[in-house]
DNA repair protein RadA (Larkinella arboricola), 457 residues
Amino acid sequence: MAKTKTTFFCQNCGNQAPKWLGRCPACGEWNTFVEEVVTKDEPVAGNWRPTATTKTAAKPKAIHAINYEEQERTLTPDSELNRVLGGGIVPGSLVLIGGEPGIGKSTLLLQIALGLNDMRVLYVSGEESEQQIKMRAERLPTPISDCYIMTETSTQNIFRTVEHFEPEILIIDSIQTMHSSLVESGAGSVSQVRECTTEFMKYAKESGTPVFIVGHITKDGSLAGPKVLEHMVDTVLTFEGDRHTTYRILRTTKNRFGSTSELGIYEMQGTGLRQVTNPSEILISQRDEALSGIAIGSMVEGNRPLMIEIQALVSVANYGTPQRSSTGFDAKRLQMLLAVLEKRGGFRLGQQDVFLNVAGGLKVEDPAIDLAVCAAIVSSYEDIAIPSSSAFAAEVGLGGEVRAVHRVESRISEAEKLGFKEIFISKYNIKGLDTSNFKIKIRPVSKLDEVFQGVLM
Ligand code: TYD
Ligand code: MG
């Protein structure tokens, strides 16, 4: 008879406690503890367990005595994915792809599975039937290749299959539907998700097969989130985007084999996900005449500079308290910039409604777009259009000073590449910058006033 024991787990971070707690002491979230049954049981047959390695005690090795060879990575046809993985798929790695339901995780992985032509890929789905997957595959432009589909939710059955099938890449869609007989609680619970991931991890390390697992993130925390697994896996990719817009961003949040500052951009079309190789062109709307309230800023996402359109609308507030609303830009930062414009620039924005929008549905955290935000607001307030050939790349401080930003050179070259004629940057960014390399006119400024005089007067 198995010894049963119950423990309380935080659904958000996986923290364990012997009794129920209202607030998780580890992550600070409220109402996330649930009770789960944990069975201490002997491993059953068919389960993936380490064999020889557990018997022999490991000896410490001097670091110079360790042989290291650069592992050969598998390049997928998807260059955006290769980039976020740090240059292709590493053998024996466990990659978690997290995202909200419906964002396109299954589509992305199926597309990759179909694109890897000369490899045996096993796509295990616990969510959709074989027919549904086939229907999806037919929508995609990639020709059907050596890709195998299996619908299964028991990890023991999956391991029994892979033992003789020997796939070169294993895809698990999704970890929340998987179930291991070693743990009693239901699929999607913290202990179940953790146990299944541990099993896939062992399988990946011992067989050298890369494993991709899909993890759903739900806002209400009804499923154990991928956060619980982040420390266990090698790489965490998050798939983000607004379900109502077509752009999707694949971001590296953890990578044992590369940098975490990488980013891939896709567009969801009727025929699957399309890679967006030159994002700036789509983030800047095409227009013939210059409109007031529009400024082009520069942001760096990962290692990629992007030019992005900031739209502002400033109008007299007719109903009591003026409204401030921003999409894609931090609302607190907008308040701060408005206060700076009021105090240092003398613009009377206190009685105005201000709406701010970052085009393309992106969320921008890079402070280098501050100057573009200020320019767009003042342009709308004064109703004077900014020439469409001007761009901005600087942070704005509380004193109305224009501050230096990182990677200014790549920002300038991106602006030049897209045909901008002039770019406003901070005077403090000029030091050490070889301006003779650029054809674009560089306008160094130190105060907000200089910018407005330069472009709006
Ligand atoms: P899906 O991959 O099922 O999302 P997830 O696995 O993250 O839950 O993506 C589903 C959405 O994508 C669905 O709303 C339909 C849309 N979609 C397209 O717009 N075009 C396509 O070619 C495909 C396959 C899906
Ligand atoms: Mg799915």
